[in-house]
Amino acid sequence: MTPPALLYFSPLLLALELVQLIAAERLLGLKAIQRKEDPRRTALPPRLAACWSIGILLNGVWMLAMLASGFGTGRVGCMIATSLLGYTLRRASPLRWTLVILTFEGAIRMGMHVSLLMLAWRLR
User: Fold this and answer.
1) Taking a C-beta distance cutoff of 8 angstroms, is the pair 63, 79 a contact?
2) Are 66 and 4 in contact (CB under 8 A)?
């Protein structure tokens, strides 16, 4: 089985995951928790919110397209399940656990991206 061309977007999405982790630490870091600030209740600047939302939507579309391609279905399925479970847990958790959940969620998805790239490398 040859890797689909969609796999070329994986490094870009891997970078997006890393940026999300850094941004989450900046927004939900220890200082914000100590000030008892809940950044989930404040609005992001419109351009940043639009870019963030577009990135998340494109990531979801990419995962569904990869799932449909049949390449790495277990890994992509794990990414989808992680995203859905992480979203559910974050919505129901207190602020102090949100960063922990985001970190684990991002690490699992980044690991699946690396695993997909390694699988494609072996099949090449």
Assistant:
1) yes
2) yes
In this predicted model, which residue has the larger pLDDT, 26 or 69?
Answer: 69
- Separation CA 81–CA 23 (nearest Å): 22
Q: Helix, strand or coil for residue 33?
A: helix
Q: Burial code of 98-124, b = ≥16 C-beta within 10 A, e = fewer? A: bbebbeebbebbbbbbeebbebbeeee
DSSP 68-113: HHTSSHHHHHHHHHHHHHHHHHHHHS-HHHHHHHHHHHHHHHHHHH
Confidence of residue 117 (pLDDT cuts 50, 70, 90): very high
Tens digit of pLDDT for each residue in 65-88? 999 999 999 999 999 999 999 999
* Interatomic CA distance for residues 92 and 71, integer angstroms: 33
CA distance 79 to 14: 12
**1 contacts: CB under 8 Å, gap ≥ 6:** 70, 71, 123
Average pLDDT over residues 55-62: 93
pTM beyond 0.90: no
